[in-house]
Structure prediction request, 281 residues.
Amino acid sequence: MTTNDSPVLRVAGRPVGRYVTRPELPARLSPRPYLHPVTTLAGTAVTELSPADHTHHLGVGVAVPDVEGHNFWGGRTYVRDQGPTELDNHGAQRHNSFQLRDPDGFVEELRWVASGGELLRERRTVAATELTDAAWALDFTFSLTNVTDGPLSIGSPATNGRPGAAYGGFFWRARKEHDTPHVFTAERDGEPEVHGSRADWLALAGTTWTLVFAGATATTRRDPWFVRTAEYPGAGSSLAHTERLPIPPGETVVRRIVTVVADGRLSRHEAAALVRKAVSQ
Prediction:
């Protein structure tokens, strides 16, 4: 079923993701559009929505903890020399319109608003493509334009003094299972080795599913990966790893992540082959 507020992505006629454009959420969660549930072609869910461990984790989307001091991630804000702190600084991403909408994807315009004003205008392009009878790809591009008269910058807890916490950007909260998922890249294995590294792709393998995230542009590939497996399963691409990311007035930041959603636990060779196919399409 498709409604104005909840388009359903389909691959070969099968529903694989529901996109919620106008979620009814408390301000503390930094309300924003998200994809959930996202499933494999066999129907296995590979996202979570507002899990007990992090209620502000909303499936798949774009979340940034610090846009010029405004929290578009949700939850507490990391304050230098103070730690995670409850602040009344939450922003919201508001769906403005769809420029295009098909069963296999859409182009959307969003407004990032905080303190009564618009900071960023986003153009989001999402497409679902069949790869094999057991795998499909989610192509997710977002462009953020500074629509204010002054400079803006994007930060993270890492740039605000918390080492290793460079989250912010494209983020996928994966399904939590009894067993901790395995994470690997072409050259590394395990959370301690993969987290914070730069790699063309990163795979997160659960019990019966595998997600393979790939930076699909040279700029995106320069962003290090943020990954968690032990505390919770999630992965994203860091916009502000060691330094804040400036966006001058009228300028635009663009990132593109392609994610392979596969049934089964992929080997390193299988993950690499599917990524090549997904990014080349």
In short: The two ends are 27 Å apart (CA to CA). The longest strand covers residues 117-132. The chain has three helices and 20 strands.
